[in-house]
Amino acid sequence: MPDRIVFGAAALPEPERHWLAAVERLPIESVWQGGHVLPPTGTGEAITRLALMTAWTERVRVGTAILLLPLYQPVIVAKQLADLDARSGGRVSVGLGVGGEFKHEFDSVGVPITERGARTDEAMVLLRELWRGEPVTHHGKYFDVEDVTLRPVTPPPPPGSTSGPAGGQPGGPPLLVSGRKAPAMRRAARLGDGWMPYLMSPSAYARSVETISAEAAATGRDLGGFEWMMYVYCSVRADGDRARADVASFLGGAYGDKPASMLDKIAPSGTPEQVAARLQEYVDAGVRHFVISPAAHEDTLEVVQLAAEEVLPRLTLPAGGAAGPVITTAGAAS
């Protein structure tokens, strides 16, 4: 993994062509958007949004944050994701989680909500089997596949190219596990290519690093190349009071009208200097790839621009310059 800190951005409130074009001109390395199948508001679905971002970008990595994997039949979503990865030249990443906040979504697609974790685990295994490009026979508890081969679309070569189509990533897009609880951490350690939690304080992130590292060690897994990410709601403004008002308005009601002091632990806000100080705590806890999700109802591009141009340069790797958290033999983050 890169020996540096990188920023991505959440395309809020919806992927929009001109917004994405502006973000691609910034020192941003990725853009992300998720979505529910039956949201309570008129917002998009994860695969549809991913397709738009894939079509409307040229340079950045594009990803779901998050895809509620247990709601999807894995053979269908494997084909969709493989095709988008191929058409994007291998730029797709899959942030995934189990969901559960809207029970009616699970009822409507015939998936018992109590099975969402186990279905996600099996689906992750099946996705990887299908993305190998070889015949797959899989007889699991929830999914049954007999001698099928998934073939991603073959994209045309870029105009003027003599090297042929770029295609997708060998073995398929990386699977990045989201969540906040111990089962999600264990899933990341056993099956994920990375960890991308949300609404988590720096100290909680450090504890998650310990949990994931210990679980990986117990299963004999080497976490080399594992991505240590954080989806962070924040607002950055020249006027720090405006930024703090952004977060209070954007998240306060949704999360029980939490006091400003509590919101600040999980959603940094303020001037570039103030937000950089808060994000440095996450870097010290192990984060190397931030997804900046503007916690604001307006001028979201300004938040991303200030984050990319004035916050990111202020962040520094811990002594030693490790590309991820350094784990001692006892499994503690240093």
UniProtKB/TrEMBL annotation:
**From which lineage does this chain's organism come?**
Bacteria, Bacillati, Actinomycetota, Actinomycetes, Frankiales
Q: Which domain of life is it from?
A: Bacteria
Supply the name of the protein. Answer: Luciferase-like, subgroup
A Pfam match: Bac_luciferase
Region (Disordered), start-end ranges: 147-179
Q: Name one GO molecular function term.
A: oxidoreductase activity, acting on paired donors, with incorporation or reduction of molecular oxygen
Task: Spell out the SUPFAM superfamilies in the cross-references.
Answer: Bacterial luciferase-like
Q: Which PANTHER family does the entry link to?
A: CONSERVED HYPOTHETICAL ALANINE AND PROLINE-RICH PROTEIN, PTHR43244
Q: Where is the Luciferase-like domain?
A: 18-251
